[in-house]
Amino acid sequence: MSNSLYYLIREPKVKQEKNPLILLLHGYGSNEEDLFSFAGQLPEEYYIISARAPHHIPPYGNAWYAINFDSDMNKFSDDNQAIESRELIVKFIDELIDQYPIDTQKVTLLGFSQGAILSYSIALTYPEKIDRVVALSGYLNMDIINKGFNTNDISKLRFFISHGVVDQVIPVDWARKAPEVLKDLKLDVEYHEYPVGHGVTPQNFYDLLSWINKTNK
Length: 217
Prior knowledge:
This protein is of the alpha/beta class. 29% of the residues lie in helices and 27% in strands.
């Protein structure tokens, strides 16, 4: 069968009747190989699937949605395209569940930058489909989350959020708003900052791995 998105997969080394899934969503201008470099260090009972964003950026990159600049060089996102990608990823998750013996109660999104922004949006819009979110170097864009999302049962969602304090792409002040909003919604949030720019340090990876293991229930 042909899937909505191209992807790389590491099948679980420890097979269960139904295995949990970690879906990796890369950032702007990157591709499915980027976060897939984490796969070998993620827990062995998981399906690790890394999706390629649908919009090609020459020469080798992809994006989930366009980022444009106005005449004053202010940067803004194409929110309609972001919502289209949100829906595409949700459809892709459904396809994966049809294709592999995935535990539908244990789907984790691990996103970087644009991938993190979309992970927030997917989880809050479709909380019944997602268990946990690892949001690396992203921010909470309320304009791409369904209005009235908090009338759904979002209570089981859990979030690991991290950001570099000298991030030159997405200011750390933007990232800091997410845990405040999520905690106001009475959600389980762990937040970390690191002395880096727009990237993931070894300590950051160690902390997210520790969080995945301790919230794996």
